[in-house]
Amino acid sequence: MNLELLEPRGPAADPSTGSTGSGTPGAPAALDITVTDDTGDAGELHAEAGTGTSGTGTISGCDAVDVRIRNAQKRDNAGDSRSALRLMQAVLGCPQGQSVMRYIMAGRYACRARDHRAASEYHKQVPVELQEEIERACLKVGINLLDH
Fold first, then answer.
1. What is the mean pLDDT of each run of 10 residues along the chain (148 residues)?
2. Could you write out the DSSP letters of every residue in 44-106?
3. Which of 78, 77, 55 has the alpha carbon at shortest distance from 9?
4. pTM for the full predicted model
5. How many CB atoms neighbour CB 106 within 10 A?
6. Lateral strand order in the sheet of 42-48
7. Residue 96: what pLDDT?
8. Which of 1, 19, 92, 130 has the CA that lies 20 to 30 A from 13?
9. What is the CB neighbour count within 10 angstroms for residue 97?
């Protein structure tokens, strides 16, 4: 995980006033931090310097579910379905990342990445009435999920 520290923000961070950013002279400055994990996903985090905690909790891969989903969509649109699938697999590994729509997305990416095993797994996770979405994506690349 890489952290990029940005400048203290807001008018209270003006060094000419003797303030360090919190609005209280001598108090720690508020910082905005960009977090990049090993998949290249970036997320924003707001922290109060010197407190050891952030305004949004601890930094983990599961804190950036929405960022990963957007990046998966971008990578798939750019033709990199394998990377999109890896991102969705990370999302589905998070408690808040599990939903029928996300399993459908992962299934489509698995098909486009020609990963029959993963496509089949995600296909099974989706209610029968919604499985057609994954089946169609797989058929486009020559994978028939209905063959047993």
1. 40 45 45 43 40 42 87 96 95 89 96 96 95 95 86
2. EEEEETTSS-BTT----GGGGHHHHHHHHHHHHHTT-HHHHHHHHHHHHTSGGG--HHHHHHH
3. 55
4. 0.60
5. 29
6. 2-5, 30-36, 42-48
7. 85
8. 1
9. 19
d(Cα 33, Cα 94) in Å, to the nearest integer?
22
Structure-token pair, residue 111: 């098909």
* In the chain, where the domains are located: 2-59, 62-140
Are 39 and 74 spatial neighbours (Cβ–Cβ below 8 Å)?
no
CB 126 within 8 A of CB 138: no
Neighbours of 44 (CB within 10 A): 12
